[in-house]
Amino acid sequence: MRYAHSNYEAFVQPPAPQDMAGWSAWIVGGGLAGMAAAAFLIRDAGMTPSAITILEASDSDGGALDGAGNAETGWLIRGGREMEEQFQCLWDLYRSIPSLEIPGASVLDEVWQVNQADPSTSPIRAMCNQGQPLADRDRLTLTGKARREIITLILTDEDELAGKTIADVLSGDFMASNFWLFWRSMFAFETWHSAIEMKRYLARFVHQILGLKDLHTLKFTRYNQQESLSQPLATWLADQGVVFRHGVKVTNVAVDVSGGKKVATHLDWLDNGASAGVDLGPEELVFVTNGSMVENSRWGDHHTPAPIDTAIEEGSIWQLWRNIAAQDSAFGNPDVFCGDTTKSRWLSATVTTRDARIPELVKRITGRDPFSGKIITGGPVTIADSSWLMSWVVSRQPHFKGQPESQVVAWLYGLFSDVPGDYVKKPMQDCTGEEITREWLFHMGVPMDQIDDMAATGATTRPCMMPFITAQFMPRAPADRPNVVPDGSVNLAFLGQFTETPRDTVFTTEYSVRTAMEAVYTLCGVRRAVPEVSGGIFDVRMLLQAAAELRDGEKVPASGLIRHLTHGTEIDDLLERYGLVWGGERKVGYGLKRCGGF
């Protein structure tokens, strides 16, 4: 497996790498990573679709790409995936998957058309003081010290960051900035999360710094991502002949690690509670989704808090990983990620409106009509003075295909679910849907004498507790995640958020699809290259733009030394173009030109 630095191979259909007749694959987990692996096995490796079996513990496909419920009892979404142009593997996959909405188009075509017609922007990225826009929301407010810490972190080798937290490498100066407020609420980072992951995010998403204040760099699907991403992929796979088996909990993969090779020899599972399994032959491949950020998710309702379930039992995907990891150190260390749910959990909630009051409130705050069918919040609106650090999102409506025209669906989450609220004096994790709605309406500026009635009769809110939702961010060492294909592995690969691939970032749809592509291409010998992770961090233009943003537009005086070193060079033009320096006139060609900002 190799990486491509250009689009030379982007649309190549490689010949089958070998005679795949007689080959088969077992895929553990029917989330995005598992289904993507099946798609790449068919499209790029030439495997017979009916020889591919996806074993899924739940009764649905898509994993974290969820969306369920109904108009009466409330719609259900555990979260929403923020996407962008630089998700090379994701879009590579979906260019081949037919849209369920537009005849003759791919899912990529559909997403492109939606975002071309209605680009994402946020009218109010952050708010405070009960419904008021955050006064300095158009600035990142980083001090010079904080900017230097960011640069130092990006340049630090990952081995030097093993076991360290964000708080270990970034000071109070950084934590007090709007940059951190926007960053943490967009990506769900806590101060105790991994410094390695923070470094990767800063490097991988350096171009996203340009969109932190208004989220204009994001891309969204037309509907929730179960209906817009998961269903088209699952439909295409089923139409091809892939076998989906639901209610199957894989409990172990036996691996022969003798002789310098790693060969998966047997699968054990519980099929709707009954023990079963299969021996594996030399032409059978195994792809395992190890770990899950939505494992043990539990729903409450408008009058009942969501229960906290942290038990890891036989049949759990975490126990599966433990059983595999016990056989060889190359298979990672699951307890680093699942061992402390107090640091990996938070609560989200889905609000289904019942009358016009909350939609009118959303319209007043955003200036956008939630019934327009267009972008409303363009991503999270973070309530800066919320004790829960609550953020809320109203996506394009309807958010579900079956949603009545009179309803609006909103999504809320609190990064600090274990502290008392500001209006409801209880931790968010102990609150009913109605109580969570009260807290939200308080911060939205609803008059005190209207909050309780509006929360009781104006919405149905369903809270969801996710004890492992940021488990992938827990402090780790480089070897704690297994490689996508461990050294010496003949027929076993790992998929998803808890595997290791260089430079890319977990908690993204791109990571799931990238690991699937790398797994299939490596085990099957596919000759087409995997697209390289976005290289913005190596692009001097992107670095200069980001530097200008980090300084909130404050220019650097152009000293004589700078003038001497850059005069007559492309660097001089770049510094001018991105507004990084000021001071006097400079020669251009044979004349003098006064530059904007100089």
Q: Could you give the topology of this structure?
A:
Layout: E1 3-4, E2 24-28, H1 32-43, E3 52-56, E4 68-70, E5 74-76, H2 88-94, H3 107-117, E6 126-128, E7 132-133, H4 144-155, H5 166-169, H6 172-175, H7 178-187, H8 195-204, H9 225-240, E8 243-246, E9 248-256, E10 263-271, E11 274-279, E12 284-289, E13 298-299, H10 317-325, H11 335-338, E14 346-353, H12 357-366, E15 381-383, E16 390-393, E17 409-414, H13 433-443, H14 448-457, E18 459-466, E19 492-495, H15 509-524, E20 530-531, H16 540-550, E21 556-557, H17 560-566, H18 570-577, E22 581-582, E23 586-588, E24 591-593
Strand residue percentage: 15-25%
Quickly give the structural class.
alpha/beta
Question: What is the radius of gyration?
Answer: 25 Å
Mean pLDDT score: 94
- The low-confidence parts are 584-598
Number of strands: 24
Please give the count of helices.
18
The amount of helix comes to 25-40%
Outline: globular
Q: What's the end-to-end separation, in Å? A: 49 Å
Please give the order of strands in the largest beta sheet: 7-6-15-16-17-14-18-13
Q: How can the largest sheet be summarized?
A: 8 strands, mixed
